[in-house]
Amino acid sequence: MAAKRTRMSASERREQLIVVARGLFAERGFDATSVEEVAARAQVSKPVVYEHFGGKEGLYAVVVDREITTISAAISSAITDPATAPVADSDTVPAVPPEGPVAPTGPGTSGSASGIAERAALALLTYIEDSPDGFRILSAGSDRAAGTYSTLLADVAIEVSGILASQFAAHDLDPRTAPLYAQMLVGIVAMPAQWWLENRSMSKEEVAAHMVNLAWNGLRGMKAEPTLHSGPADNSNGSEDASGQGADSRTESAVHRHSATSTTESTDAP
Length: 270
What we know:
Layout: H1 10-28, H2 35-42, H3 46-53, H4 56-80, H5 113-130, H6 132-138, H7 143-170, H8 178-198, H9 204-219, H10 247-268
Helix pairs in contact: 1-2, 1-4, 1-6, 2-3, 3-4, 4-5, 4-6, 4-7, 5-6, 5-8, 5-9, 7-8, 8-9
């Protein structure tokens, strides 16, 4: 005689459907996942899925919202409360002299931009390590997930911007540029995280250390009024080469050299 299955409560059934759908969305993506597949894997009928979520869109929204809540809490906590942030092995973090607007200000560099980048990077990488399926859903490119993930990154940038602005002002740098640099820092963390999802050749501590190395060593040497080395491009009189010399200028120089050579040859001729 077959064992009698225990009937799940409504909350248990809802949680089961979320877990099953999460795995399918990560594996196949939103478009390729159907309500039929979710129901079959959960061993329920399609109406049960519709009863709990109204359809695939509603189920996907719940999965995405849950992932966003988890990752948002981890990153926000890492930025605002260093005590709760993941801790990296000190041997993997680049040592940088204490100078510049993002220099360390105490144990763990908790008050510096480098400390913020380190904690945020470790928080994001720890989430990816613990919830690879969740991050695949958020970074898969679906409009439904991508918009929410972009909003999360924008919120993180706003938090970072406020911290950078105060540090910039204290070091005679224009605090109005803080939002731009905050976006750069978030990009340094967000894009490599997507790469690391599928390329685990380095540990999360190593990846975070390299992220911080780029952000830290770049920011601590900032100029108050940076300029481009080549100056503004002007193609009206010909394109410029790597030395900043326009095509017409090069042609003109060649003509002068040819003229000078011709004059010399004429003078030396018998």
